[in-house]
């Protein structure tokens, strides 16, 4: 993955619009957050291979970025994104990595189910 | 260390064995005791992707699978079994099926010693789910035929609640193998190992002690 280039990411997001896509969305503080700091309130969510279709999507912000996808009857968004890759299967992999490189958020789009 | 007939190690993630157990594994193998390591997931949800990142969410499982194999090779471990569950979902699996799967492995291998996590004191939800399933499976065996359970606890309240570990292994004799196996889990351990160089040079007693002494609690039903 490399630092997000918003123009390139926008182009890829546009390419998936109005198609059935499989979505991976994840936020995490890590399973040890409360172990390392008892006052820390750990929360996160995870969805893998949600089959959705979006009318349009947008990347916005000034590093880190936000990506929002407008569905016919709802929304998907993620914030804190700063790295991306379009992998060899043409999937858009975006992630938010903290200052030590640890993943905090991921939003990924594919036309085929993720393994 | 007692000579065992067969050792069975069960953990949910590649690298769960690295810091606290890999020296004990290497000692058993040097002692010609067969050791089987069941690793339930490939640590797909690991947060470390390298810094700068050399992995993605999607390439991480493939990388960690290779690292796990390399870590096993470093210890001389030949019976490595990957169960293909998914990281952070172990606690949501069907409890009875998970117990059954472990019971089958126990039946096949007939271990005299099982090493896993201590339920209630192992912090990560997958560790806890693994620990509960292992204890359930062993609990179903007739008392006189049960293998010993040596468990790893590292929750902050462990010693306050379950006391000091009753099993201590000095693994200095195999510490090179242990360090090699820790390093094999590169995606997860690289940044930590980098901080060791200076301490190793100065023979830092805290670090050496942490590496050389492996601690277990015997589970009592």
UniProtKB/TrEMBL annotation, chain A:
InterPro entries: DUF1806, YojF_sf. It comes from the Bacteria. This is YojF family protein.
Automatic annotation (TrEMBL), chain B:
One of its GO terms (molecular function) is hydrolase activity, acting on carbon-nitrogen (but not peptide) bonds, in linear amides. Its cofactor is Zn(2+). InterPro entries: BshB2, GlcNAc_PI_deacetylase-related, LmbE-like_dom_sf. Coiled coil: none annotated. It holds the Pfam family PIG-L. PANTHER family: N-ACETYL-ALPHA-D-GLUCOSAMINYL L-MALATE DEACETYLASE 2-RELATED, N-ACETYLGLUCOSAMINYL-PHOSPHATIDYLINOSITOL DE-N-ACETYLASE-RELATED. This is Bacillithiol biosynthesis deacetylase BshB2. It comes from Peribacillus psychrosaccharolyticus. The gene is bshB2.
